[in-house]
Design a protein that fits this description.
heterodimer; A: 257 residues; alpha/beta; 9 strands; B: 287 residues; 11 helices; 0% strand; flat; ABC transporter permease (chain B); membrane (chain B); transmembrane helix (chain B)
């Protein structure tokens, strides 16, 4: 962990035109290669924070800096990110392969190369052989795998995930958690994972940012000093249970405050 | 990442597999769809024929199905010419409705100013009864067939326009964000996101427009009342009515209805073929 800073948030806030303050005064530095979880109840602004980092929403206060990145033609930071939404968000009219190839083809990569790289990305998430399948023929977990493959096909430095497994059953979620960690250990992208599950955050992340609501703010920061790879042994260990208890307490304090 | 589990694969296979066994190339539910209305139709025609014969209704009041069939066969030469005239106007109007409706909808989607300026006039055109403005158009336009085409187009274009506009504005918000994230340009968003999203809406509009183009063409022909060899089915209906050739009138009516049915079935088929791989409307429900 603790490489150089990839993204640095200073006093970041978001106030909507209605006057609602969704996020207030967030200071946060995300290190290159780390796995960070944003944990909090609904309405705590964790998704808004993620969208501001992605550039999908603009911060109304503070700055979001990319210390090591240049700027693109429009003067915006060259973000180099992948984004996984809460829903798979696939184009229903396109095959799994075409869905995964989308970021490449939008960037002007030739079809043949885009499809070759997309096929490889599908293989990486365990979906080799499903290139021609349409989204409606895939199960919920498989659709989410396609969505992850699409986010990773450009080999981004930063992978942003907004409660990606919240709608899946627990068995599928465990399997996807394991597979996500395996991918992260192999490719070492930086990951920010938004969740409302204490257990999921402790299982995945090296560092957990606990957020509180009204206004959305950082309430606590907890390091999870367990090594990787993590698997079922970790999930059933006293260490894991201890971390879960500590994080739950912080979350409880944050919600009571 | 590990391979996905066997149970997940089986689930995907079950989702992809057809659920019914085919008989003579058609599934039982498709047979039901064909046979049920066909049998009902035969019962209805039989009852009609019996009623006409038993009550001895004269053919100039109500001809039986057999008399209509005979008239259709006897007058086929002149009726076929008229059918061809009506078909040409209908199809030209439908193609114009599809193309102009689609182009206008795309323009609306690209510019709010254009949409706000033009949409009210499209609505006015739609709500004004075609019977009322057809005489004006026929007076203003020298070529009668162009006048008929304009009338049919006015009736037919609105469903395509309004449905496609709705479809272009119905994109998945997350997909829009995704395109923004990858810095897609306007053209890419239109071509790769908004048009595919609008496709089912456009096709539904087109199915309505198909029937309306025919109705528009017939109504305009009624108003125009053109004689001679180059007149459509509506004129044959009028002419037969004046001459009390009621079986011939019914025969022309049968051709009009048949044309409408063929247009609807053809457009439904096109819609099904284009959407069957992905859209819920074109997919057989699983049981």
């Amino acid at each position: 962990m603790s490489g150089s800073a990839l993204v640095a948030l200073r006093g970041v806030g978001k106030r909507y035109a209605t006057g609602t303050v969704a996020v207030q005064g967030v200071d946060l530095t995300i290190a290159e290669g780390e796995f960070l979880a944003l944990l909090g109840p609904s309405g705590c602004g964790k998704s808004t924070l993620l969208r501001m980092i992605a550039g999908l929403d603009t911060a109304t206060a503070g700055t979001i800096g990319w210390p090591r990145s240049g700027h693109d033609a429009r003067g915006e930071p060259a973000r180099d990110i992948g984004f996984v939404f809460q829903e798979p968000t696939l184009m229903p009219w396109a095959s799994a392969l075409a869905n995964v190839a989308l970021p490449l083809s939008l960037a002007g990569v030739a079809t043949r190369e885009a499809e070759a790289r997309a096929a490889q990305a599908l293989g990486n998430v365990g979906l080799a052989g499903f290139e021609r399948a349409f989204p409606r023929a895939l199960s919920g977990g498989m659709k989410m795998r396609v969505s992850i493959a699409r986010a990773l096909v450009t080999r981004p430095r930063l992978l942003l995930m907004d409660e990606p497994f919240a709608a899946l059953d627990e068995i599928t979620r465990h399997r996807l958690n394991n597979d996500l960690l395996a991918l992260w250990e192999r490719e070492r992208f930086t990951a920010i994972f938004v969740t409302h599950s204490t257990f999921e955050s402790v299982y995945l992340a090296q560092r957990i940012i606990v957020m509180a609501a009204r206004p959305g703010r950082v309430a606590a920061e907890i390091a999870v000093n367990a090594g990787y790879p993590r698997g079922e042994i970790y999930r059933t260990s006293a260490e894991y249970a201890g971390h879960c208890r500590a994080v739950s307490e912080r979350l409880g304090e944050a919600m009571a405050a | 990442m590990s391979q996905i589990s066997a149970s997940e694969k089986a689930e995907a296979a079950a989702l992809a597999e057809p659920t019914e066994r085919a008989v003579l190339g058609l599934t039982p539910s498709m047979w039901l769809r064909i046979l049920a209305p066909a049998i009902l139709g035969l019962i209805f025609l039989g009852a009609w024929e019996v009623l006409v014969r038993v009550r001895e209704i004269p053919p100039y009041i109500l001809p039986g199905p057999l008399a209509i069939g005979r008239a259709l066969a006897a007058d086929w030469a002149s009726l076929a010419v008229s059918l061809w005239v009506t078909l040409q106007i209908t199809f030209a109007a439908l193609v114009m409705a599809a193309v102009l409706g689609l182009v206008l909808a795309v323009l609306f989607a690209q510019s709010r100013v254009i949409e706000l300026s033009l949409y009210p006039y499209a609505v006015i055109l739609q709500v004004t009864p075609i019977v009322a403005i057809a005489p004006l158009i026929i007076i203003w336009v020298d070529d009668i067939r162009v006048a008929l085409l304009i009338c049919a187009w006015i009736v037919a274009f609105f469903p395509v326009l309004s449905n496609t506009t709705l479809g272009l504005n119905s994109c998945d918000r997350n997909l829009e964000d995704l395109f923004r994230l990858y810095r897609a340009n306007r053209w890419q968003v239109l071509w790769r996101l908004r048009l595919p999203t609008a496709m089912p809406y456009f096709l539904a509009g087109l199915r309505i427009s198909g029937g309306l183009a025919l109705i528009g063409a017939i109504v305009a022909e009624f108003v125009a009342g053109t004689g001679g060899t180059a007149s459509g089915l509506a004129y044959r209906i009028l002419e037969a009515g004046y001459q009390l050739q009621i079986p011939r009138m019914f025969a022309a009516l049968v051709l009009v209805s048949g044309t409408g049915i063929v247009i609807f079935v053809a457009l439904s088929l096109v819609s099904h073929l284009l959407l069957r791989r992905w859209h819920e409307s074109a997919v057989e429900r699983r049981r």
